[in-house]
């Protein structure tokens, strides 16, 4: 499944109203750990049809980072039915990301 760029404008529709679990990747272009994590998140998105993967650029949408208390990036958040189920800060390997989803 394709990656969805999440902004404050589409957050309600793309995340809160989504029926599937949503994996949110909070990142920034200047963040090297974020850039290292990105291809792994992309791979998970390609392999898992049962989830939605959204990326939130904290520089463009700091309000969303504040809303979720994101103080360090990369941060991954799993939401189900509009509720935060899991949160992980820092780099993760694929197995650890998949474990967040299960």
How is the topology of this model organized?
Layout lengths: L2 E3 L5 H6 L5 E6 L4 H16 L4 E6 L4 H6 L7 E6 L2 E7 L4 H8 L1
Parallel strand pairs: 1-3, 2-3
Antiparallel strand pairs: 2-4, 4-5
Structural class: alpha/beta
Query: Can you tell me the CATH class?
Result: Alpha Beta
User: Quaternary status of these chains?
Assistant: single chain
Give the radius of gyration.
12 Å
Tell me the count of domains: 1
Just name the CATH architecture. Answer: 3-Layer(aba) Sandwich
Low-confidence stretches: none
Q: Output the CATH homologous superfamily.
A: Glutaredoxin
* String of helices and strands: EHEHEHEEH
Name the overall outline: globular
Mean pLDDT: 95
- Which fold name is given in CATH as the topology? Glutaredoxin
Number of helices: 4
Largest sheet, in brief, is: 5 strands, mixed
Strand proportion, as a percent range, falls in: 25-35%
In total, how many beta strands? 5
Determine the fraction of residues in helical runs and give it as a percent range. 25-40%
* Spatial separation of the terminal alpha carbons: 18 Å
Strand order of the largest sheet: 1-3-2-4-5
Summarize the structure.
The chain contains four helices and five strands, in the order E-H-E-H-E-H-E-E-H.
